[in-house]
Amino acid sequence: MCRLLLTGGYRNISPTIIKCSCGHRIVRKDVIQTGLYLSVLGPSFVYVRYRCGRCKRVGEKLVEQETWDPSVLQPVRRGVNESDLRRFAEMGEITPEEVIDFHYSLERLTADSEEEARQL
Ligand SMILES: [Zn+2]
After folding, report:
1. Which of 52, 70, 90, 95 has the maximum number of C-beta atoms within 10 A of its C-beta?
2. Which residues pair with 19 in a beta bridge?
3. pLDDT tens-digit profile of 63-77?
């Protein structure tokens, strides 16, 4: 798994997308179980058991660990991401004043909890 993370940005193997025989793309909420078949001789496999969100059929799929990318199970949520990006863009960069404010609010928090501790 670590190797996948480390090489994540540089792989040119396209991740395997799991599809039901009806053509529905399997996402995380359809997955019942995943497992790992480690093999000493050959490639290791990731085992995915799912119930199709459309036709409700249960299926299994073995994916070579090399081509397995858990993010293929992420539902596409483009809308949410775009609004987040817009929100961050509107906020602009963090200013030194904000950093100082944050620092002081942390100090206030610490002082408050020390005060409470004394009272208890
Ligand atoms: Zn299906």
Report:
1. 52
2. 25
3. 988 888 888 887 665
